[in-house]
Amino acid sequence: MVGQPLCSATGDALPLVIGLCGTLGAGKTRLVQEICRAAGVDVTEVTSPTFTLVQSYSTATGILHHLDAYRIADVDEFWQLGMDDWWWEPGCRTFVEWADRVVAEMPAETIWVRMTIDDTPVVTESQDQSSAPRTLAFWGADPIRCDWIRQVTNL
C-alpha cells in the first residue's frame, strides 16, 4: 500500500536516492517490490539484489535502480556500481538496501527510511515475521527532499 504514494510523489522528476535501513526481514526488498508494482513493473521481475548487487527497472517516469550494500566489500566496489551517475539522472530513483553500511558514501540529499518490525502482542502462532506490521520512519537533510518526505507521509 505504501508503494503507490512513494511512486506517485514525483518531486518534478527530481532524482531521489533512498537509503533503506532495517534488520534482516524488515521488508526492504518488499517495499521496493511495491514501489515497482505501483510504477508498472512486473513484480515477479523484482528480486533482491543480494548477489547481483544491482537490479534496474524501466518505468514510465524513469529508471529505478535497486542496490544491496550488504555484500559490498569496500567503497571502491560501491562506486564501481555507478551510483554517482544514477544519483543525478532526472527522474531516477535509486533505492539502496543496507544503506547504513555505506553512510559515508551516500549523497547529502539521501532520503533515509528506517524500517522496523512492530512488536505487538496481537501476533498469533499462524503469523510469521513477514505478516507482522511495519513502521517506516523517514528523514533527510536536504530541504527539497524534506518537502518530498512531507508529501509522502501526508498521503
Question: Biggest sheet, in brief?
Answer: 6 strands, mixed
> What percent of residues adopt helix (DSSP H or I)?
10-25%
Q: What is the averaged pLDDT score?
A: 80
Query: Got a strand count?
Result: 6
Order of SSEs: HEHEEHHEEEH
Q: Regions with pLDDT < 50 over 5+ consecutive residues?
A: none
Number of helices: 5
- The span between the termini is 11 Å
User: What's the architecture, going by CATH?
Assistant: 3-Layer(aba) Sandwich
- CATH names the topology as Rossmann fold
What is the top-level CATH class? Alpha Beta
**Rg computed from alpha carbons, rounded to a whole number of angstroms:** 15 Å
What's the CATH H-level superfamily name?
P-loop containing nucleotide triphosphate hydrolases
Strand order of the largest sheet: 2-3-4-1-5-6
Which geometry do the CA atoms define? Answer: globular
- Structural class designation: alpha/beta
Strand fraction equals 15-25%
Number of domains: 1
